[in-house]
Amino acid sequence: MTTTQDARPDSSARTPPGSRAGAGTSRSGPAPSIGGRAVALVSASWRPVGVLLLLFAGWWFVAWRELVPAYLVPAPGAVWDTMVADWAMLLEHTWVTTVETVIGFLLAAVIGVATAVLLVYSKTAEKSLYPLILFAQVIPKIAIAPILVVWFGFGMTPKIILAVLIAFFPVVVSAVAGLRSVDPELLELSATMGASRWKTFRKIRFPGALPQLMSGLKVAVTLAVVGAVVGEFVGADRGLGYVLLLASGNLDAPLLFADLILMSLIGVVLFLLVELAERLLIPWHASRRGNLALASS
After folding, report:
1. Which residue has the higher pLDDT, 30 or 140?
2. CB-based contact 185:135 (threshold 8 Å)
3. Domain covering 75-285: architecture
4. Where are the domains of the chain?
5. In 3D, which of 128, 83, 27 has the Cα closest to residue 263?
6. Angle between helices 87-121 and 206-234 (to 10 degrees)
7. Angle of CA points 126, 281, 16, to nearest 5°
């Protein structure tokens, strides 16, 4: 007589020794090749590149037909000539603004995540600090910049502090939301298994908060550029904000446009670096799989 247990297929014949059960179902297929990744990258980037080319063509047409005076909207060729002629000066000031932005962003990220952890783990800190953080956020940062210049002088310090102040809030909000969005059942299971708070944070809370935290960091890195430039507006002798003031005072439209383009490039490059970090840190998240699907469509 054959029992039910004997009728079941032998799982050892299907699963190699040392492999995890169900491991084959976690992947939808083989890893994409280098050629496949290149095709996906081109498929994902041709639309924004096309829009950028259309905007450039519109700019060129307006300058070519002289629909707007040249001292207001210079021709793309004039802007390019200015960038080539003054590349050494522009490179020096671009480097200053980039350093201020990166340092301010990194400080905002570290302080913001630490503050978020404190707010999540301490109700007293949340009730005491969160209203103050919100109050500090609604204060116009352009009003704080002159005070920082008076306190710290015309060096990099006030620009870095202003970049931290502007980039700090989105990091805190996104980190708090991410840390609180972790499945409570996982936390209960971790406590039942006897895991310490630090191990629970390192293994469960922080990885689960990464998707929302990375979204906040992408917002913060672009705001850090704004903070550095605003600080240079108020008081500086270096940086792209300083060059922008000089170009405006001299009605040098080509230099003004070249300066704006370089500011935008700083923000775009830093945003892409944070996006790359997100791809490396959370390749398992549904948002990353969704981006791959959109790229291949």
Report:
1. 140
2. no
3. Orthogonal Bundle (1.10)
4. 75-285
5. 83
6. 140
7. 125
